[in-house]
Amino acid sequence: MKLRRSSLLALGALCAATVASAQQLPADLDAQSRARVPYIQRKDTDESAKRLFDIFVRNSNGPTDTLGGPLAFAAYNVPVAISLLDLHDGAVGKSSSLDAHVRELAILVACRATNYTFEWNAHEPAAVRAGVDQKVIDAVRTNGALTGLPDADAAVIRFGREMLNDRKMSSATFAKAKQLYGDKGAMDLVAVMSTYAVSGFYAIAVDEHAAPGQPTLPTVAAH
Question: What is the predicted pLDDT for the residue at 24?
Fold first, then answer.
């Protein structure tokens, strides 16, 4: 199958952006964490951090295990990281009224608002599996217009953009969320988006860069 010229150009731009990211890392980044602070090591923590290591350390090699993952930098204050983990479990766990489609879309909206590439790359495939159309994902990725998108998806995106980008939500936007998901569902949208935005704020502060070969979110103006 022949690729359209626009698709080839987009692929080329993505590859160029990835290579540039690998070649132009700022001098203040740690080589392993690709951020301004190193990852926490198990040997530098106490028993209070065990839950974090059990969840986020994939290769257990004894006391020198390295804590990566979405709470890697929050873990500099272990009680804060544990609280954020509990917040996450409450926001996306069984107590949430949102289905996987809405939840994954809300997560992408929050990742886009904070340019949080790490979690975007983890959740874009999950959003596809949950039935979020690629054109909806692309509209979030590029901060594109919502024209032509499914009404419910557009409502979630608009909700997140107003809350996280504009810092002000219109009555119409909130009313639409209530109509679609009820009072609890609207509050659950806030919970999901704010949970992932917090991790995104850590990534902003430490200037976390994607690993070599991983795509990064494009730099775009807020819509």
Answer: 78
